[in-house]
Amino acid sequence: MIRTSRLLARGAWVPLALLVAAGCKQGPSPEVQARIDSLSQASSERDRLMQEVAENTRLVSEVSREISKVNVPGRALRSPPSRRCGPRATRLSRRSAT
After folding, report:
1. Can you give the pLDDT at residue 15?
2. 97 exposed, middle or buried (CB, 10 Å; 0-12, 13-18, 19+)?
């Protein structure tokens, strides 16, 4: 009897293990997989945007470097006319003065 119970105990775990293994799903659930895919897509989009920002930063730096090389004499620079001093502002001030 002890021999029989030992044989049963040795062989009983095999079907039980197969049942447990078959009952367990392999991989994540569809909801979890959808979330993983969404996060993966967002991560790749973030990486692409970060590369674009780095390219734009290099471009702005290059433009700034080129602008710093330009030498313009002080006399050549004129400030744009003020809006107050424009022709319309003069007409409006004449009307209010009368």
Report:
1. 66
2. exposed
